[in-house]
Every structure is written in C-alpha cells, then in structure tokens.
Specification:
This protein is α/β, with parallel strands linked by helices and 331 residues long. 35% of the residues lie in helices and 15% in strands.
Length: 331
C-alpha cells in the first residue's frame, strides 16, 4: 500500500484529542484499481479519533456554536439525529466540552455504535419508522423537534442544514489537493447530508480546479430527485449514505454526476477493499468503492481519482463482514 506525500499539517497546536482530527492519510488503491488504466487514491477518514469523517463536521459545528455563545459548557444539551457516525463524533466532542448529548437514532444504527455513544456519556433514543412515509429520518427529525421544545438549554446542530458542516470539508479537499502532484480529475464522495460534497465543491470552485465531483447515493434515496421506478422496493439497511429527505445544504449543480448503489454493492465494495487492499472499511466506503468499480467503463485512461472513505469497518463486523448476515440478507 503506497502512501501519498503528507499534506501540510492543518491541525491546531493544542495537545488534546481534538487536535488529531483531520490530516488523514491518502493511500494508493493500486491492487483493486490497477494504475495502468487510471489511478485511484483513498482518503482514509477512519483515522480521525472518533473513527469517521463526521469528526470534522462535529468539531466545526460545535466549536462554532461555542464561539457564538449558542452553547454553554456544563449547561447546554446538544440534540441531534444520526445514523451512527455523527452521533459518535458529537458524543466525543460533547464529552470534551462538558455538554450533554441526546442522540436520536433508528433500528439501522448498529448496537456497537449505540454502545460507543453511551460510553462517551450520550443519551440515545431509538425511534421507529415514520407512519406516513415509512422512512426513519422523518421520525428522527420529528423527535428532535419535540426534544428542542421540552429540554431546557437544548441546541440542535442540524447537520442537514448547518453551513459549518460543509465548511469543515474545505479542509478535507485542501488536504487532498495539497497531497497530490496535481488536482485529481475525479472526486468520489458519499451523499448523505451533502456536507462533504458541498464543502469539497466550494473549495474546488474557489481554487479553480478541474476536478469533477461524483456523488455516490443509495438506491431509493431522494437526495437528487425522486427515485426511479426501478428503485422502488429496495430497503436500505446500510447507513451512511442516502436520505429520505432532501438536505438543505444541497445546491443545484453541486455535483457533476450521481451514481446510485445498492446495499449488496456496498458489501461487495467493502469486501473488495479488504481482499485486495487489506482495508477494513465501512458501508459508505464500500458504496464509494463500488461506484468506482462501475465507473471503469466511463473514466478516461490516465485519469486520477480520489475516493473519500468515510469510516472503518470495525463497526460492521456483525453485518457487512458477517457471512451469515450477508446470506440471510441477500441469499
């Protein structure tokens, strides 16, 4: 596994755990994507202290709220909806800054993720599907709004609409840009809140880079428009990408291309990374990898691609990396 030259340090100098957020490694994925066709680099976000790319957004949103006086250590309660990784990142940040956290999740959130949030001191509430839409996210957001009305000192970071979610990823794209000899031709990133996509797109536009942005979405997601007829009936069980509500961070023309993947594609992508690169990656990382494997039919020879791999696979051992789960889910 080849490692790209390190990006210039973007971390602050204070010697605490939050100083380790960012400056994650960029590694060549030459075994899974032979470079004689096109070059692929993986941005490994599992090396953030909370284990995912959501550490960046959590720090950006919480520290802005603290600086603006919207949060008070020892007094305020953060309330947020999450499928897992942001909840863990917020739990770490809130514990560090002496803030209480109530995280609203749904049954797709793994038991390990719930346990991690609780280990950091968070209160975790699990809600079921919204009766009107049959989706989880509307039910989670409704519960968040109820808590905001009833919990004293409650504050909602609102990852789907918070500009500081997107701003955190100006740094993500800067790290990629500065670590490579030239700007990549393509950047592949999972679409959820669209914070990563928007932040990277803003940096690309500001720097005048030729990089084309490819959004990796889930089959059945509504982020980029209503699902096509062939998408109906697909039950999304792997969290981290896709959404049942259009994020307010999304802007028209944000991405150059959208690729949709199934849960089985995610499993294949994850297992391909593990078999070929010895990278134990999470579900949305598998989605991005699957999209790149599919893109081999249209990416021009000699192109340079970067895949943002949002998290690690140690939180998916009972699902994606369990043969019994895969067999029961997909036959």
């Amino acid at each position: 596994m080849t490692v790209a030259p390190s990006a210039p340090a973007t971390r602050p100098r204070e010697p605490d755990i939050l100083a380790t957020i960012g400056a994650t490694p960029l590694v060549a994925l030459d075994r899974l994507f032979p470079p004689d066709r096109f070059q692929v680099w993986g941005k490994c976000e599992r090396f953030n202290p909370g284990g995912s790319i959501k550490d960046r957004a959590a720090r950006s949103m919480i520290e802005h709220a603290l600086a603006a006086g919207e949060l008070t250590p020892g007094v305020s309660t953060v309330v947020e909806s999450s499928s897992g990784n942001l909840g863990i990142a917020l739990a770490q940040l809130c514990g560090f800054h002496r803030l209480r956290l109530i995280c609203v999740v749904d049954p797709r959130t793994t038991a390990q993720n719930v346990a991690l949030m609780r280990a950091y001191g968070a209160t975790v509430e699990v809600v079921d599907r919204d009766p009107e839409t049959g989706e989880y996210l509307p039910a989670r957001l409704r519960r968040v709004r109820e808590l905001l009305r009833t919990v004293p000192g409650a504050y909602w970071p609102d990852q789907y609409g918070n500009e500081y979610n997107a701003r955190a990823h100006h740094h993500t794209m800067r790290e990629i840009h500065e670590a490579l000899p030239k700007a990549p031709d393509y950047l592949f990133a999972a679409a959820g809140t669209t914070g990563t996509l928007r932040g990277c797109a803003e940096y690309i536009a500001a720097e005048g880079l030729p990089t084309r942005l490819v959004a990796v979405d889930a089959v059945g997601s509504v982020i980029f428009g209503p699902p096509e007829p062939w998408e109906h009936g697909h039950d999304r069980t792997i969290p981290g990408h896709g959404a049942a509500v259009v994020p307010r961070l999304l802007r028209p023309g944000l991405v150059d291309r959208v690729v949709k993947v199934t849960d089985l594609d995610c499993v294949r992508g994850c297992r391909g990374l593990l078999a070929k690169e010895s990278i134990l990656a999470g579900g949305s990382s598998g989605a991005v990898t699957a999209a790149l494997l599919d893109a081999a039919s249209w990416i021009e020879p000699g192109a340079t691609c970067v895949a943002i791999l949002p998290d690690g696979g140690d939180r998916y051992l009972d699902t994606i990396y369990s043969d019994a789960w895969v067999e029961s889910r997909f036959g």
